[in-house]
Amino acid sequence: MAKKITFVMLVLLIVSAFVFVSCDQEAAGGGGGGGGAVKEEPKDNLVYNGFFEKGDDTDLVGDGASVLVEQGIGMGNTAGLSVTQNESYGEVMVDITDFYGAGKSYYVEASFKNTGTKDDDLTAHLAFNIVTGGAYDVVGQTYDIPGQYDGGWLDDTDAEALGYSTNAEGEDLEDGAWHTVAAILTGDEIAAVMAAEDEANGVTGETTMYELVIVFFVGSYPDQDGYEYILDNVYIKDLNPELPRQGKTYIAPPEPEDPGEGGDEGGDE
Asked: Under a CB-based contact definition with an 8 Å cutoff, are residues 99 and 248 in contact?
């Protein structure tokens, strides 16, 4: 009897080991099809259709990049976003200005898989772009504004202390497998960037939010053109839902009145 029990236990251990290795290989990605593990989109995702299972409509758009939602290319052979960066600044972006609120912090996560041949710098990155109302008034555009790209994500060690595993420096996609990049943007960092941006542009008075954008890209500026990859499972979480959302706090200044309007009507003398 003891020999039979020992034999059965040995078989169970072998089967368990096989299942564990199979699951581990699936989670690691690579291989045929989409690869990777299938995940359900969280209900608190600030990105509409960030997992691309609701059709072609999504908050994610290409900037200097062509994007297309395709079936069967995502993690676990689900839908994913096919991306080709065409410009030196090529990227995928999502505007989360509507979810801005003073003091709010945000957790950002996305999965990447390289599908192209360019391999100069196959690092997948997350970034953010903040434009204050005052700086927008001064420069008149939402890019190349002094100070807007300054600041950084929360240090990975500090994020771990909050219960989040992050890798804010990015992930190397050279092995052709799925890699997930995660980071935390704190409310303190947003406030610091806004204040420094206004100072850099000579803005005085109240600091206001014009635009808050999260960015996803491969490579490094100004050599981001030519990279091709799949983006999937884009998740942005509001870490402070108890704080009110303010959205865009910038109010455009009133248009100057036309001197030719509103004058006294003339008449015959």
From this structure: no
Q: Which two tokens stand for residue 207?
A: 């600091």
Report which residue type is found at 76.
G
Task: List Cβ neighbours of 23 (8 Å cut-off, separation of 6 or more).
Answer: none
For the segment 215-226, what is each residue's pLDDT rounded down to a tens digit?
Answer: 999 999 999 999
Question: Do residues 209 and 197 make contact, with C-beta atoms less than 8 angstroms apart?
Answer: no
Under a CB-based contact definition with an 8 Å cutoff, are residues 228 and 67 in contact? no
- Cα–Cα distance measured from residue 6 to residue 161, given in angstroms and rounded to the nearest whole number: 44
CA gap 42, 37 in Å, rounded: 15
Q: Cβ–Cβ contacts within 10 Å for residue 94, how many?
A: 21
pLDDT of residue 161: 97
Closest CA to 72 of 38, 116, 96: 38
Between β-strands 228-238 and 106-114, what pairing exists: parallel, antiparallel or unpaired?
antiparallel
pTM: 0.83
Full 3-state SS string of the chain: CHHHHHHHHHHHHHHHHHHHHHHHHHHHCCCCCCCCCCCCCCCCCCCCCCCCCCCCCCCCEEECEEEEEECCCCHHHCCEEEEEECCCCCEEEEECHHHCCCCCCEEEEEEEEECCCCCCCCEEEEEEEEEEHHHHHHHCCCCCCCCCCCCCCCCHHHHHHCCCCCCCCCEECCCCCCEEEEEEECHHHHHHHHHHHHHHCCCCCCCCEEEEEEEEEECCCCCCCCCEEEEEEEEEEECCCCCCCCCCCCCCCCCCCCCCCCCCCCCCC
